[in-house]
Amino acid sequence: SLSLSLSLSLSLSLSLPLPPPSLSPPRHDLFGYVGIEAVLDQMRRKTMKAGFEFNIMVVGQSGLGKSTLVNTLFKSKVSRKSCSPNYEEKISKTVKLQSVSHVIEEKGVKMKLTVIDTPGFGDQINNENCWEPIVSYVNEQYERYLKEELYVNRKPRIPDTRVHCCVYFLPATGHWLRPIDVEFMKRLGKIVSIVPIIAKADTLTMEERQEFKQRIRQDLNANGIRVYPQTEYDEDPEDRILNDKIRENIPFAVVGTDKEHQVNGNKVLGRKTKWGIIEVENVAHCEFTNLRDLLIRSHLQDLKDVTHNIHYETFRVRRLNESNLTVHGLALIIVYTHTTLEFRILESPPESDLQYTVANTATASCFYSIL
Amino acid sequence: MLLKLICHLSPAFPGLSTICVSKERYRSGRDKNARPLSLSGHVGFDSLPHQLVNKSTCQGFCFNILCIGETGIGKSTLMDTLFNTNFENFESSHFEPKVKLRAQTYDLQESNVRLKLTIVNTVGFGDQMNKQESYQHVVDYIDTQFESYLQEELKIKRSLHNYHDSRIHACLYFIAPSGHSLKSLDLVTMKKLDSKVNIIPVIAKADTISKSELHKFKIKIMSELVSNGVQIYQFPTDDETVSKINTAMNGILPFAVVGSSEEVKIGNKMVKARQYPWGVVQVENENHCDFVKLREMLICVNMEDLREQTHTRHYELYRRCKLEEMGFTDTNPESKPVSLQETYEAKRHEFLGDLQRREEEMRQMFVQRVKEKETELKEAERELQGKFEQLKRLHSEEKSKLDEKRRSLEDEINTFSKKKAAAELLQGQSFNTNANLKKDKDRKK
């Protein structure tokens, strides 16, 4: 077997940021090659075999190009474009969510992609509470996952239908955020990762685009709306630098299409107009590639992680608390300790858990003292 | 104390009725119904495994090995050799009264992979005269690790992705190189552990066995394990890239290993070896022992699988048993599916009822005690009252006696003074008469 020199391994290790200075055990130096790094390969193999799931929701008024964008992102006919609906369909009274799943594969990596469409959003005359079906849907997926997670006999792999990313389409008005945008993003920003984009951005010039973006960012800040990538969830300084760059650029101004044209002898995806061809994948023309890179090539796993570790956990805490399962952990503690009425409070349960305990230890102890 | 509860999970989500999804496509929470689709260009999600791996690299990996074996069989040395480093360990005595487990965590780094390695050693295993309790401590330790993970998982505010996983991923069982067969302690211990942890048996100090003996020994061991129904860890053969090597290795179990932290010069290289007067046993020479194979299997090929098996098989089994023990089920007696939350609420209800009952009991006991005390006090009061009355009576009796005496005395005094008065009177009279007589006499003269 090989034996890398110690200095080589040390120099490679220095390139990575050091772990947070928590209670880390003493660092031991290896005298030679062991083969620990092979675990990366093992992990890669296993995850490829298991496959991935990704659920993306697109929200926006009809006609903003949602289906086209999704098709362009995933280079296939994932969504069927809603061709001109009949008059009756058009004035459906509520937002109806439609979810379509496909399995796509690239270089051995299988992904189950689910696109959740929200036709009818913002299309009515009275759009009050049009976000409610969407909020319900998102919460229902969390609920479903929670239920599966709580089974005694649970599946080795819990099917993940939670919305990992919600792409919100802003019409390219060039002004400010509209009330419906603010309301929607305020509410949904708390439960899901929102990626706002400027749709059909080919109607804005570069200067208009920059101004619009700046105004939107101001608006988002002023309303306390958190969009992805959220500053609070940056894990380390490297992440922060990367994400800051992204945050300076959102919302991305995108153009979508599935038609190809010839430009300078190359086939490119683009929209042909009388004044030129707008190349979708050209960074000088629009920011589609930025969006694609963010969503798919660099932050896909992060989107899933944020959904799982943060949004889902927030939901779980809220759900377990509100259905009066405050004694959840506690009853188990009681049974574990095998003594009747001995309330042993473990490490650090949140205050809400303690409410019940305190009331009852008080009564119990006062009786004990009398006797 | 079994808690039985029934409760309702109300799916109170407003607007649920307005959600309409294309049914056959939506039910494809299972992969079978999702349509495959072909891509017309490079999308880029093939970088997903790399993204995932990068994230894990930043967080670091955890790996926990449990070494079970008699004192002095070479556990610590093997760990040193395996990880090519020098962990501080000290020899333990043979006089431990009970089997103890000592866990130490080390932070290792190789290229950009950070590994938090925890090595748990059994101290005093097999040293006691009575070895009946030996395996119990090990089982308890393993269960404790599962328990703390389960408790973390069941907490309301939990942080699983930051949690330092202390569950044992691999158990190296060191078999003494007797050349004959497994000891009964070995069989019993392995049988108790096989459903809780991935067991990899190794023959320690294999340089004391000759090649032919070793072959027979291995066959004997494996047949004993099979006939006793001990499930040792099988290297996975479902992934084509590694199935061949894994299947081959499965046939070479248990690995005959030699450990050494000393180096000997062979040719022009320094190799880890043990030097004897009759020759040098090279640790990393595959003809001499199976050390390289062990390292290959344990670390380079199957570390991730060991971790996965621990989590999906052993931990799930533990969790299932523990929850069932506490009375949680997925289906209630009518075989209708019941969610953990429902069972939970039901338990809480019963628990509350129980609590109320106990409060009542305590209250009643309290009232009773108070009554008892009251009666006691009343008794005492009555007694005192009685005594008081008695004393009073005595006192009044005495008083009346004394009164009588006084009266009689007074009577006497009265009589006496009367007598006295009478006597004085009489005396006065007689004196008067005498005086009168004298007067008369004087006159006559």
From TrEMBL, chain A:
Main location, first listed in the record: cytoplasm
PROSITE patterns: G_SEPTIN
Gene Ontology biological process: cell division
Keywords on record: Cell cycle, Cell division, Cytoplasm, Cytoskeleton, GTP-binding, Nucleotide-binding, Signal
Gene3D superfamilies: P-loop containing nucleotide triphosphate hydrolases
Keyword Signal assigned: yes
Septin-type G domain ranges (all copies): 50-322
Signal peptide region: 1-17
Molecular function via GO: GTP binding
GO cellular component terms given for this protein: cytoskeleton
Keyword Nucleus: no
Localization terms from the record: Cytoplasm, Cytoskeleton
Family note: Belongs to the TRAFAC class TrmE-Era-EngA-EngB-Septin-like GTPase superfamily. Septin GTPase family.
Name of this chain's protein: Septin
Annotated organism of origin: Oncorhynchus kisutch (Coho salmon)
Upper taxonomic lineage: Eukaryota, Metazoa, Chordata, Craniata, Vertebrata
TrEMBL record, chain B:
Keywords carried by this UniProt record: Coiled coil, GTP-binding, Nucleotide-binding
InterPro entries from the UniProt entry: G_SEPTIN_dom, P-loop_NTPase, Septin
Gene Ontology MF terms: GTP binding
Coiled-coil intervals: 363-426
Family annotation (Gene3D superfamilies): P-loop containing nucleotide triphosphate hydrolases (3.40.50.300)
Residue span, Septin-type G domain: 59-325
Similarity remark: Belongs to the TRAFAC class TrmE-Era-EngA-EngB-Septin-like GTPase superfamily. Septin GTPase family.
Protein name: Septin
Organism: Oncorhynchus kisutch (Coho salmon)
